[in-house]
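Sequence only, no structure available. Ideas?
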Amino acid sequence: MKILFYNWVDYQDRQRRGGGVSVYLQSLIAAMGSNTRLEPVFLTSGLAHDLRPGAPRWQEIGKHRYEIVNARPIAPAHAQFGSDEQLSHPPTEAAFADFIARTGPYDVIHFHNLEGLPASVLAQRAHWPQTRLLLSLHNYYPFRPQVNLWQNEARHCEDFARGAACATCLPLRANAGAVRMSYALERRFERLGLGPGTAFFDRGFRPALRLGWNGLRGLAGWRRKAAVNPAPATTPAAPASPPPALVHRRERMAALINAHCDTVLCVSDRVRKLAAAHGIRETLLETCYIGTAQAAKWQQTTAREVFLAADGTLRLAYLGYMRADKGFFFLLDALEALPPELARRLHLTVAARRGDATAMARLTALTPRLASLRHLDGYSHDGLDALLAGVDLGLVPVLWEDNLPQVAIEMHARHIPLLCSDRGGARELGNCPALTFRAGDRADFARALGAVLHGQTRPADYWHAARAPTDMAAHLRQLETLYSAQQ
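Reply:
I predicted one. Tokens follow.
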């Protein structure tokens, strides 16, 4: 069975772009290596560009790995927010068709994203009717050009207001030409031996680009007070005439998926419900929790009988990013508002890349209120065991409908219960109402955490209905069943 996987970034990307999806694809393709029935091929698009613009084309970049160069849709999607070319660009579609014709035929094409390609490539299904088409929803790109349901980089988005909310969604939009040029320069530097991993690239080129972008964000008011203290969710005031292009984008994306995909895989039940609400036919939708190499930790660890240490303290961990949508600033708000007698019983580990001066100052100011606070400037998967040793409770305080965060899986697989907000898929791992709080509600966070500190909620309450993590072997068997299903 020959399978084509598509994502906007190569799963072996040297800059480690793609977040949890890339981590998942690395594990998935590695698991397929010992399966003689499956032949995986990988295609990426949206990042590779020539300095001198040319027609889209495809090329080999490694064994069974290919990329489309000069694709008109740029990846990731926010670099070309809501562009018409995300729906259709005939030259890019022709390059994709040529790739399929010359490297196929494929039994299965599994899109792990549509970013970097015109969605109209799905309509090429008519030329290869025996091929099964699957789409995994790792984000909400088909429904919202922002990709995540996060309005104006400040608040949860519940209603796109017929496109009006999307029209004002980003306080600063990237210049598509400048993004293409930066990608082309990256490509040229790599050919000259000055790519990722070199001092020139890691300490010069990339920081310079980041500094310039952050400067533009500052001028646009990106880092405003609302990002540190998000306002209550509200529906933005709609312009007099909502932009028809954004309405058409959402409707066209759903129509293409409904007409040409055999199955749409949702990484959590919450994603499945949201996809149905956004127009995807329910008969296409199937919940498929992703497999993880971290599942091996399930057999190597055991659940604690109690949360609290002998001295009554609790060890918490927050992993990920210092971002508002991930709930980091809400977490600071909630911990700052805790009664002192509760706060001083908490040992907190924050494993996240350094944020701006305001974020770091808030961490410093919070430290005296807690029993202890440890900050790690990011982390690696190789160091997770040491990082999480002794942690009693993981924190997943997301403010948006995060599909299923990898950090949640990583902690859960080590028998670390999760205190989750009620948005996104993370709460489905434990299925524990006692350790779920209303997103963005400091009082409800304090209620749930207080029940742990007072001994009213115990680890057994979390594990009673918890899901065991899905290992890659079991996940691959589920995918094989879907790949082999009759059309």
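The domain at 295-463 is CATH 3.40.50.2000 (Rossmann fold).
Hope that gets you unstuck.
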